[in-house]
Structure formats: structure tokens, C-alpha cells
Amino acid sequence: MRQIGDVINEMIEYYSGDVKRINHFLKVYSYAKTIGELEGLDKETREILEVTAVVHDIGIKVSERKYNSSAGNYQQIEGPLVADPMLTKLGYERPFIKRVCYLIAHHHTYTNITEKDYQILVEADFLVNLDEDKASGETIQNVYRNIFRTAAGKSILQNVFRLKPQV
User: Fold this and answer.
1) Is pLDDT above 60 for 50?
2) Are 119 and 107 a contacting pair, CB within 8 Å?
3) How far is CA 59 from CA 63, 64, 78, 101, in A?
4) Is 0.90 surpassed by the pTM of this model?
């Protein structure tokens, strides 16, 4: 039986000693899980979302080694190549892995988002990045207006950063 704890444990091992990266994916996972539940995602979509939230930045190590950069475009290229064998080893089936890899390969692309799992992943990652990057109030407002689409994500962003409700 597959469990999210197995994926988390594998990623903690993968990022052994890198507390910053481990804490990042754990926070993104927490927000993604919360938003997914509040938005009423079905069980399979929630599982895909939650696994992806844990592994979304898996391409950073390779990107830093290969390109000397952790830029999002490199993560999107390298991440699926690392995630696929890890998820295969953990017993996930091909269609599931394919969807997770698609989301990894697009999690820094903010246009043409039509699926809820994709939207929620982006929102969860932004919630964490805005804090970790100490974003300005103006940046947070712009992200709220231009990126966030789910009611749960908007509400969480407003409460975390004490934004006034947008009309």
C-alpha cells in the first residue's frame, strides 16, 4: 500500500542535510493538502496533488549541478527525470507518475492552467515562496490578483499575509 509518508521519507533522504529544501517541500505539501481538501478534490486527484507537492522541486539538485542554477525552467526540465524512477520504485503506476511528472514540468509555468491539481500546486508553492522570499506587499497583492484562482487558496493567502479582501 502506497503512503505519502513513504514519498516524504524518500525526499528527506534525497535532500539529506538540506533543511531549507526539506522544510520547503513539507510546507508546500501542507498547503496543497489543505487547499485540495477544502476545494473538494476527489481522492485520486488529491493523491496526485499531494505527491507532486512533495516532489515538485526534485530537479533542483541536478539543476544546480548541471546548470549552476536552481531556476524554475531548469527544475521543470530535470525534475521529471529524477521523480519518475523514485515514484516507480515506490510502487506508483505509470499514469499516476505521468501526471506527477507533467505537473513538475510545469510548476513554474503560470499560463494556461486549466486543471485544479495544477492550480493548487502553483498556489501552494507561491504561499511558501512569498514568505521565504520575504515578498513585498505589492508583490503579494499582484500574485493574489494574477495567480490565485481557488477560493481556499485566496482565503489562505489573505489570512497568512493579512491582505484586505479583494473585490
Assistant:
1) yes
2) no
3) 6, 9, 5, 11
4) yes
